Amino acid sequence: MAASSYPVLPDERLAAGVARLAVRHRGRFSPETVQRLIADSYQRLAANAHVRTHLVVLAERFAAERLDALTHVENPTAGDGRPRVLFVCSHNAGRSQMAAALLAHRAGDGVIASSAGTHPAGAVEPHVVQALTEAGVALDEVYPKPLTDEVVQAADIVITMGCGDACPVFPGHRYLDWPVPDPDGAPITVVREIRDALDARITDLLDTLPSGS
Fold first, then answer.
1. 123 closest CA partner among 81, 87, 91
2. For residues 208 and 78, what is the distance between their CA atoms, to the nearest angstrom?
3. Could you tell me if 111 and 83 are in contact, meaning their C-beta atoms sit under 8 angstroms apart?
4. CA 68 – CA 53 distance, rounded (Å)
5. Overall pTM surpassing 0.85 (yes/no)
6. Cross-sheet strand order for the sheet of 112-117
7. Cβ 32 vs Cβ 1: under 8 Å
8. DSSP for the chain, written as a single string
9. pLDDT at residue 51 in the model
């Protein structure tokens, strides 16, 4: 295919990530598709980012998550059977980040937990990071991500928190709504209460999830 079919990368440093992801998905997605997705991921993150220092790294990570979701959507039976749970809130800076981190912490490798926002903020709330760290939840450079269709389609369960009707609905998926307060701007004592309320809901959710193979 002609070189002109490749989309222009907004940052030349993304080329290394394109190469890595193209190798990982060889036989499933063309290099052009990978480059298009990583360029789109970078632009989506850059639209709201307060700090752009790590955008190249985050764009590759975001694109990797989207490619994994696309792989699952195109061939659901090819996975390892682990349930996929997506948490969605408006800004992906508080509730959905805490819920995904808590579920990953509690379930370990038994569940694929992710989060996204319908209108992502520029950064995760500092008190959210503090409350999770206090609870011993490991954080791997969490960052707000925009909601994309393929990630919703790949999820077995979509849990919304305060984003109204902005989350797309696809047939055959399980949707839940958790009416949890927004920690945006709240003091750390309130954020801890929200964390604990989410953790209680995570306990109930785990009782309903099938075990992965």
1. 91
2. 23
3. yes
4. 25
5. yes
6. 112-117, 84-89, 157-161, 174-177
7. yes
8. --GGGSPPPSSTTHHHHHHHHHHHTTTTS-HHHHHHHHHHHHHHHHTT-S--TTHHHHHHHHHHHHHHHHHHHH-GGGS----EEEEEESSSSSHHHHHHHHHHHHHGGGSEEEEEESS--SS--HHHHHHHHHTT---S-----B--HHHHHH-SEEEEES-TT-S---TT-EEEE------TT--HHHHHHHHHHHHHHHHHHHTTPPPP-
9. 67
> For residues 115 and 89, what is the distance between their CA atoms, to the nearest angstrom?
8
Q: How many of the other CB atoms lie within 10 Å of CB of 180?
A: 20
Burial tier of 125 (Cβ tally within 10 Å: 0-12, 13-18, 19+): buried
Structure tokens belonging to residue 164: 């109204």
Q: What are phi and psi of 117, to 5 degrees?
A: -130, 145
124 burial level (CB within 10 Å; 0-12, 13-18, 19+): buried
* Length of the chain (residues): 213
Q: Which of 119, 113, 106 is nearest to 182 (CA)?
A: 119
The sign one gets for the Cα dihedral 56, 61, 65, 68 is: positive
Q: Give the closest residue to 115 by CA, choosing from 138, 78, 148.
A: 148
Low-confidence ranges of the chain (pLDDT < 50): 1-3, 213
| Cα gap 68→79, rounded to integer Å | 10
